[in-house]
Amino acid sequence: MKSRTLGSNGPEVSAIGLGCMGLSFGLGPATGHKEALQVIRSAVDRGVTLFDTAEGYGPFVNEELVGEALMGVRNKVQICTKFGFAINERNELIGLDSRPKHIREVVDASLKRLRTDRIDLLYQHRVDPTVPMEDVAGAVADLIAEGKVLHFGLSEASESSIRKAHAVQPVTAIQDHYSLWMREPEHTKFSLCEELGIGLVAWGPLGQGFLTGKITRGMTFDDANDLRKDFPRFTPEAMEANFKVVEFLNDLAVRKASSPARIALAWLLAQKPWIVPIPGGTKIEHLDDNLAAADLELTPDDLREIEAAFSTIDIKGAPISAALDAAIDR
């Protein structure tokens, strides 16, 4: 597996990481515990070193899974997790909470679930407008000074919030929704990352599965644990229109002796050397397909063809639900 450095002063990580959320939460029924452990451990065997989770995934169960899976190889990997939500006694996310006292409580609990003594990269999951960003960054700086956290990150934060945080505690990486069909970070974050030396970790790099070509016409997302049921881009009408994306990727993949997922991930890697995508994967065959993208070289002609094709496709529907979008700091 090839490696990349997250930003100018961040850790060296595998060029493709593993987003672990979908093993427990968010994209349909949870993967069986034994199989989920095998997926994470197989990713390690294949050279993945960057593993992404959060207390809010489950809540809590995904951190526990990641901790169990990686405890035997802890010094070979980087574990990323997140704080920022209020969670009630019924394990329901009920709002945002980035008060410094709460951040410390979350980190101590996450360390126990992850079976480790430090978090390699700690993100604020969503910006809490009631807590000054300087206070958030200061709380994380204290945890870094204590050795409980090694690097600070922000997820879906605005340029203003990132600058305020970075002035107190350097931000190693931001995590944003970025893929071939979700291009907003190019306009809002790229120049900032270049200026401040910050890496970008791309979540949803395969369009919640759509860019893999494995989602077929007529497929529905009715499971209560599948967030896509509320995503406008996944309504039957929008999906039918958006199959033009899949048709193009399938055609290019055939010509490149590759797969749509590899094309989509290789395109991300070709955008900037400090971008690291974190596709999910609930089966080992997903890993084998996704991770091969690190060795797929898209030529300048390939990249121009992809750009030209997507410029003519009118992608229908918002990429996430209105409720999730409302929590993004813009």
Write the layout of secondary structure elements.
Layout: E1 3-5, E2 12-14, E3 18-19, H1 33-45, E4 50-52, H2 61-70, E5 78-83, E6 85-87, E7 93-96, H3 100-114, E8 119-124, H4 133-145, E9 149-155, H5 159-168, E10 171-177, H6 184-188, H7 190-196, E11 199-203, H8 236-255, H9 260-271, E12 275-277, H10 284-291, H11 300-311, H12 322-326
Parallel strand pairs: 3-4, 4-5, 5-8, 8-9, 9-10, 10-11, 11-12
Antiparallel strand pairs: 1-2, 6-7
Helix pairs in contact: 1-2, 3-4, 4-5, 8-9
Structure description:
- Keywords: Oxidoreductase.
- Pfam families: Aldo_ket_red.
- Helices cover 39% and strands 16% of the residues.
- Helix 1 (33-45) crosses helix 2, helix 4 crosses helix 5 and helix 8 (236-255) crosses helix 9.
- The protein has one domain: NADP-dependent oxidoreductase domain (TIM Barrel, Alpha-Beta Barrel), CATH 3.20.20.
- It has 330 residues and is an alpha/beta fold.
- The chain has helices at 33-45, 61-70, 100-114, 133-145, 159-168, 184-188, 190-196, 236-255, 260-271, 284-291, 300-311, 322-326, and strands at residues 3-5, 12-14, 18-19, 50-52, 78-83, 85-87, 93-96, 119-124, 149-155, 171-177, 199-203, 275-277.
- Helix 4 links the parallel strand 8 and strand 9 (149-155).
- It is built from twelve helices and twelve strands.
- The mean pLDDT is 97.
